[in-house]
Amino acid sequence: MSLDWIYYAISWILLTWHSAWDAIVSAEAVIGTSWSWILAIVFLVVTVRVILFPVFVKQIKSQRAMQALQPKVKELQEKHKGDRETLQKEMMELYRKEKANPLMGCLPMFLQIPVFLGLFHTLKRLNPNNTQKTLYGWTVDQFNSASHAKLFTAPLSGRFGSTAQELAALGANSGTVKLVAGVLVLIMIATTYLTSRQMILKTGWAEDPQQRMVQRLMLYGIPVSLLVSGSIFPIGVIIYWVTNNLFTLGQQQWVLRKFPPLVPAKTGAPARTTGQPAKSGGLLGRKTAQPAAKAPAAAPKVAGPKPGAKPVNPKKGSRPAKRQG
Q1: How many CA atoms lie within 13 A of 195 on its CB side?
Q2: CB-based contact 218:130 (threshold 8 Å)
Q3: Digit-coded pLDDT (tens) for 216-243
Q4: What is the mean pLDDT of residues 87-114?
Q5: Over the stretch 61-92, which tens digit does the pLDDT of each residue have?
Q6: Which of 47, 135, 160, 199 has a Cα at 20 to 30 A from 91?
Q7: What is the dihedral of CA 171, 174, 176, 181, to 10 degrees?
Q8: Per-residue DSSP letters for 30-53?
Q9: In the chain, where do the E strands start and end?
Q10: CA distances (Å), 225 to each of 44, 48, 212, 232, 246, in order?
């Protein structure tokens, strides 16, 4: 299957944003940085994330639905222990009935993979000696401009693992490229870790061992793998990844406030018994707290005797008066 359509789409968005920023910022490099190309990559991220935002909201809603179904899932696991086939059928029926999709949680990430691959392929071929400069809708001037685009004098197509011959063709200094790429890789690892940690802190660790393993993989495995794979990423791709992570941090913060995670009931807590059922309200059907019952009215206070007054005997006052004879 040809991926040319992805390369054309990514190139079109990138070149459109570059043309817009090239008309605003100076075409000359400032502090050794070609800002029009850097901003084009940043706004490529913004464009993709805005397009995928409705999918991201569906992902959060699906995660909340899956979290609410955990008690029923545990019941099915206990009921069909040892019968894996029946358990799978019952769980699929439960997901269908409750309109929950376990795969929705990974959909935004899967949809961003083609964008990442398209940008990786596009930036990797930015070499002044490349004879195929007009592929994917590029003009010769655009290709030459992007080939010489730099971040602090390090070319965007340069990599931490670039060979001396590749850097010589780009007219770049090996030490500068390794320094810039190395710092960006560390930032990429840190922001990748923070995006996973932010979600886990808000939603909590899963009780299911398999889901907990996936959470640990997302939290520790992927950042560690980037320490190795980051050396093959062009600097422009790392800029895309870091920008994407920063966008995710802000977006998750907003969505977690808009769709707060469900708070599981504490085991062993006594059930609240009320005459009326609790009203459901708020987002995603979360139950609102019931108003506290009013305390009974206190008995009215009886005023005490005035200072200096003679004590009154109520029993004596209640006897009938004697007749005088």
Answers
A1: 22
A2: no
A3: 888 898 899 998 888 899 999 999 999 9
A4: 78
A5: 777 777 777 788 888 888 888 788 888 888 88
A6: 199
A7: 110
A8: BTTB-HHHHHHHHHHHHHHHHHHH
A9: 150-151, 154-155
A10: 25, 24, 19, 12, 19
Give the residue among 144, 132, 115, 149 at the shortest CA–CA distance from 8.
115
Calpha distance 17→11 (Å, rounded) = 10
Contact status, residue 77 vs residue 272, Cβ threshold 8 Å:
no
- Asked if residues 49 and 255 have their Cβ atoms less than 8 Å apart, the reply is no
Give the CA count within 13 Å in the CB-facing half-sphere of 102. 12
Radius of gyration of the chain (CA): 34
Look up residue 131 and give its two tokens: 């004879």
Q: For residues 47 and 12, is the Cβ–Cβ distance under 8 A?
A: no
Amino acid letter, 214: V
Residue 155 and residue 172 in contact, taking contact as beta carbons nearer than 8 Å: yes
CB 172 within 8 A of CB 158: yes
Burial of 153 (0-12, 13-18, 19+ CB in 10 A): middle
Q: Which tens digit of pLDDT belongs to each residue from 235-287?
A: 999 999 999 999 999 988 888 788 776 655 544 444 343 333 333 333 334 44
The amino acid at 324:
Q
**Alpha-carbon span 188 to 287, nearest angstrom:** 39
Q: Which of 216, 200, 251 is nearest to 63 (CA)?
A: 200
Q: Which residues pair with 151 in a beta bridge?
A: 154
Distance CA 236, CA 37 (A): 9
